[in-house]
Amino acid sequence: MVLEVGVVPLGKDIYDFSGRDKLGKIGEAVCQEYLKTWSCVKNIENVRNNKEYQKKDIDIVMTLNDNQEVTVEVKTDSYISGNMFYETISDDVKNEIGCFEKTEADFIFYYFINPQYRKAYVFNTEYLRDWVHKHKDEFTLKRVFNYSYCSWGYAFPLDRFEKDLEDSLTIVDLSCVEDIEEFEEEARKFWDKSKKEKSKNKKV
Asked: Model's pTM, two decimal places?
C-alpha cells in the first residue's frame, strides 16, 4: 500500500475521553486525526465499542477511495526508552495472548504520546509478526508486574525495526495533527492521576 499524504476534508470528530483506558482513547483519536491527512482515505470509523471488532483487536476501520477497507490497531505508549514493548502474553493469570499476536488488523499504529517525540510507527502487522517470530530468541523475555497478574513480552529497539523493516514500516510525525497540544494535555491529566494513584498505593 502506498501512502498518498494530502489533506482531505473528513471533518473533525468530537471525542469522549471518559471511562476506562483513557490513554488508549486519546491515542486512537490522534490516530484518526492523522489518518485524515491521507488523500487515499475516504472514511474513518472507530470500532472500539463494536464487539465483533473487539474480538479481533481492531480499533479503526478506514475506507479508501477505491472502497477497500483497511483495519488498524492502535497502541499508545507514554514511556520513551528507544524500545517498543511487544507483548506476547497480556495476562498470565487468564492466559490471554498479547494484542500484537492476537490482532487481525492490517496495520499497527504504535504511538508515543509525548510532546518531545510526537512520533508513531505504522507497522504492517504480518511483516512485524514474522520478524518477531524470527528474531525473538536474540532478545530476553521480560515480565511486567501488574496488580494481580503479569504481562510478558520483548523490548525491541526501534532502530532495529527501522533497519530491518524499512520497506514495510512508516514513521510519521504527528506534529501535523490539528490541536495536537490539546490531545497531549488530556494525556498529561492521565499521567498526573496515575502518578497520584501509584503514590497512594505505595503508602497503603
From this structure: 0.83
